[in-house]
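Escalated from tier 1: guanosine-5'-diphosphate holo job.
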Amino acid sequence: MPDVSIVIPVYNEEGILREAVTELLDGLAAVRSALHAPDLTFEVIIAENGSRDRTAELAQHLAQEMHEVRTFSTGEPNYGKALRRGILEAHGTFVICEEIDLCDLDFQRRALAHLQHGDCDMVVGSKAMKGSHDQRPLLRRVATKVINGMLHVALDFRGTDTHGLKAFHRATLLPVVEACVIDRDLFSSELVIRAGREGMHVLEIPINLHEKRPPAINLVKRVPNVLRGLAKLTYVIRFGGKP
Ligand SMILES: Nc1nc2c(ncn2[C@@H]2O[C@H](COP(=O)(O)OP(=O)(O)O)[C@@H](O)[C@H]2O)c(=O)[nH]1
Ligand SMILES: [Mg+2]
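Tier 2 regenerated the structure:
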């Protein structure tokens, strides 16, 4: 079994997939050495669904070429569903949830150091806390703050970010992952919020966010889905109902 599973949901990423995965695997040597853990083993799980380009086929090729890489493809585009399945299929003691346009080795190194020291159960890479540096356009930075503000009001969430990079001890978080019912964009938020509410120690650390490419899906088009997800999330967490 690997020590660390890196789960990466991907959708229509043929342009950067091979380069990003190759760079990630090359970079892991530096993570091992910074952690003084030369034998630390990794697996990379590419969680694809619904891509209309050659992403699924490219992911298959990568899995055949590189023994650390596994992949699966399922139905319609759904970030949360793909990430959830990737986490459930992970074998590592620790799981890192990545994004193909980030593959942030610095976050991975710092998060693993915290987890190995037993400082916390989950590390969240925040792009909105003091010390972080978010290089995305203003509108997307504002969107992050708005979603966070809504989570604060609706669910009493006290952190600064729920969407994006995360790392955790797999066995500890597994019951929380299994309890999650929201898919799409808000799955990430549900996972972080549930973990906190179940008394787990969630530690936020600042990240330097630099995307390898702008997102394919227009921010405005995501709004209805995110609002629906927020309403569902509030309902299931506040009232324990079915989504
Ligand atoms: N499997 C899957 N992955 C997705 C989907 N939408 C986005 N992703 C992946 O999620 C990660 C982040 O997506 P991105 O478009 O950068 O949105 P951002 O999180 O707002 O920056 C990337 O690795 C994408 O390929 C989806 O519908 N299904
Ligand atoms: Mg992105």
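The mean pLDDT is 95.
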